[in-house]
Amino acid sequence: MRAFLSRAPTAAWICALVACLSATCWSFITPPFEATDEPSHFAYVKQLAEKGTPPTTSEGSLSAEEEYALKVLESFEIRYNPDFKAIYTQQQQNTLEAELGRLNSLDKGAGSPSGGVATAEPPLYYALESIPYRLGSSGTLLDRLQLMRLLSAVFAGFTAMFTFLFLRETLPRERWAWTVGALAVALSPLATFMSGAVSPDALLFAVSAALFYCIARAFRRGLRTRSAIALGLVILAGLLAKLSFIGLAPGAFLALAVLAVRETRRSGRKALRAPAIGAAIGLLPVAGLLVRNTIAGKPLLGIVGGTATTAGRTLLGAANYIWQLYLPRLPGTVSDFPGLFPARAIWFDGYVGRLGWLDTFFPGWVYTAALIPAAAVAALCLRSLILRRAVLRSHVGEIVVYATMTLGMMTLIGFVSYRSFPAQTIEYCQTRYFLPLLPLYAVVVALAARGAGKRWGPTVGALLVVLFLAHDIFSQLQVIARFYG
Amino acid sequence: MPGVRIALAAGLAITAVALGVVLATPPVVVLATNSVPPGTTLAEGIRGVCQAGERMPRGTRSIRVSLYAFTGPRVTVKALGEGRLLAAGKIDSGWSGASITIPVHPAPSSNVADVTVCLEAQTIGEPIVAYGGLGPKDVAARTLTGEVLPGRLSIQFIGEGHSTWLTLASTVARHMSLGRAWSGIWIVFLVAALMLAAGALTVRLVLRELQ
Q1: Fewer CB atoms < 10 Å away: N or C end of chain A?
Q2: Of A82, A465, A485, which is closest to B101 when you measure between CB atoms?
Q3: B210 and A458 in contact by Cβ < 8 A?
Q4: How confident is the model at residue A108 (pLDDT cuts 50, 70, 90)?
Q5: Domain final residue pick, A282, A300, A318
């Protein structure tokens, strides 16, 4: 790891630092518990840090101190209601601090009976967050929350760093384009907003970026035992970071299979050893889950199996739903989203700016205006791909792997949302669920800059970077106006 | 490569100008409200609702109503008064939240009393929940089919305030320093410094790598 970090170019470090700084800003700007599901994630950490076990129920109340903080901070009133602002007076602040100080001594060691919506999540992120939680144990709940947010911000740095390294592997010729792509991620408001909050998404983004890097590296330099172990460990970390990593897992295992076939052709059957080691390490959490559920007499795949079986009740209906979630409806099919084109209204607009609890928006014209640079980026990227189609042909296996990872995420989100349809049109209508694919977004941006040609490429790249910087700044101002204006 | 420098300089200049324009504009504020607290569920799965007896102030640019949906359908709003359509607007599908803010046009040039506000979902989709306060039947909101709801919805009329963001900056900064860990006005300066540092690093990196 140390050798890897020392080999990373300075530009990668600077991109990482920019991401860290942006996420740190978000951690201070966003009021406590005003990021999606943050109360539940905090409760999980509290339980794990104080009791040593993950929460066992999503029902019931949270800890006394967290319930008090949520009440005094008026979190439930503020959420979804733009009329409500964060607390206003020094007197409120003094009362809050005094009472939280008192509750910290009373509530210490009690854990959190409920983990809310985070209960089903795997423990890795929460275990890591237990460190700042314990470091801040003498302070109030708000001190601990802020320290935890700062650790999340560090993960944003890793996300940008691995994205840079992924670009270095996938687009080795144009060095300058790595910076453009990595800065697109480092200054992504949605990614840094989520990484400035207590949320396993922060770790998931970093681990996913590491996965993309490991796969790209293995395709370029071959899969040796060490790189296979690294890839296996990254898959393991992803599966232990957040359940939604399952969407990327089929693509990751496909990568191991493709690499195994390629290496076997070159070096014979002994080359199977490395991919087998990688797959075995990556499958460890699945094996652990199977053993645990067998012993406990629960369904073998737990919540994941439940998702698959529920969603599979009408396969055709699910397929139609998932198709329309991303693409225009096919002729002759039932419209699941009348008057709504999710690709634009949910996913695109969500990336442009739906922050807080999805309740902080830009004025409507911003989303329409954002279509212009988005279309330009898409057109330039397409031009770049067409010009280099010969190179693409030699990377078909790798491209199929990335496509599988993308389709895996799209299908997972579609299946899970379909469970609550039609009571809720799209339960998981948050663009953040696609942010594990940030490295691919970075490739699109880098290709777009390159698509402007040798002469204009860097200039277009510089313009794109300024656009991303402005997007981040105005998103932060929008959140400040929403909560403090 | 001079193109990179020029692009950076132009981009940053446009950003600075845009920032200046934003700071020189007044924030949107609540011009008037019917003072109904949105604490009670009045109806679930409604497709449209009308509520009379509202007062629409001069300069209203948006109407905010206490309707909830996770992924809301397209909704139109009409403000009717003095025997005519005063203003109308729509919000596209995909909104989310416990209140819906719909831009309306034209902005009335004077205050209008006894306005009826009508909202209608234009597409079949997720059921909408109406929140408000319980009240007597004769002044309660009604669905488009004439069904009387058990009370009134919370409605606010939104328009531009008088102060600009720039003049409000110190108030916003003071507000931002509260309700958090390590409270104090220094938080605001810290955030500004961190973002300036991020911007400076970005510019420096672009100049180094893209030239």
Answers
A1: N
A2: A82
A3: yes
A4: confident
A5: A300
- Distance (Å) from the alpha carbon of B30 to chain A's nearest alpha carbon: 8
Selected residue with higher pLDDT from A303 and A174: A174
One-letter amino acid of A427: E
Distance from CA of B83 to the nearest CA of A (A): 30
Contact assessment for residue A243 and residue A305, using Cβ atoms and an 8 Å cutoff: no
Cα of A142 to nearest chain B Cα, Å: 5
Closest CB to A14: pick one of B38, B205, B210: B205
B1 with A87: Cβ contact below 8 A: no
> A350-392, pLDDT tens digit by residue?
999 999 988 898 988 999 999 999 999 999 999 999 999 999 9
The domain of A52 spans 32-151
Whether residues A42 and A119 fall in one domain = yes
Q: How close B81 gets to chain A, by Cα (Å)? A: 26
User: For A336, which residue in chain B has the nearest alpha carbon?
Assistant: B125
- Confidence band, pLDDT 50/70/90 cuts, at residue A311: very low
In chain B, the domains with their CATH numbers are 2-27+163-210 (no CATH), 28-160 (2.60.120)
Give ∠ CA A91-A93-A95 in degrees, rounded to 5. Answer: 70
User: Count of A–B CB contacts within 8 Å?
Assistant: 218
Contacts with A142 from chain B: Cβ below 8 Å: 180-181
Chain A residues whose beta carbon lies within 8 Å of the beta carbon of residue B99? 80-83
**Tens digits of per-residue pLDDT, B74-105?**
899 999 998 899 999 999 888 888 889 999 99
- Give me the number of domains chain A comprises: 2
Cβ contact A429–B19 (<8 Å): no
State the average pLDDT over residues B123-137: 86
Choose among A176, A337, A466: nearest Cβ to B11: A466
Report the alpha-carbon distance of residue A322 to residue B92 in Å, rounded. 21
**Three-state secondary structure readout of chain B:** CHHHHHHHHHHHHHHHHHHHHHHHCCCEEEEEECCCCCCEEEEEEECEEEEEEEEECCCCCEEEECEEECCCCCEEEEEEECCEEEEEEEECCCCCECCEEEECECCCCCCEEEEEEEEEECCCCCCEEEEEEECCHHHCCEECCCCECCEEECEEEEEECCCCHHHHHHHHHHHHCCCCCCCCCHHHHHHHHHHHHHHHHHHHHHHHHHC
* pLDDT over 90 percentage in chain B: 76
CB contact under 8 A, A345 and B92: yes
Whether A293 and A233 share a structural domain? yes
CA distance A398 to A335: 35
Question: In B, which residues are within 8 Å of A24 by CB distance?
Answer: 194
Which residue type sits at A403?
A: A
Task: Tell me which DSSP letter residue A83 carries.
Answer: T
In DSSP terms, A17 is beta-bridged to none
Residue A141 lies in a domain: yes
Contact A142 B180 (CB under 8 A): yes
Q: Are residues A48 and A146 in the same domain?
A: yes
Find chain A residues with C-beta within 8 A of B10's C-beta: 463
Q: What is the arithmetic mean of pLDDT over A114-120? A: 92
* This prediction's pTM: 0.93
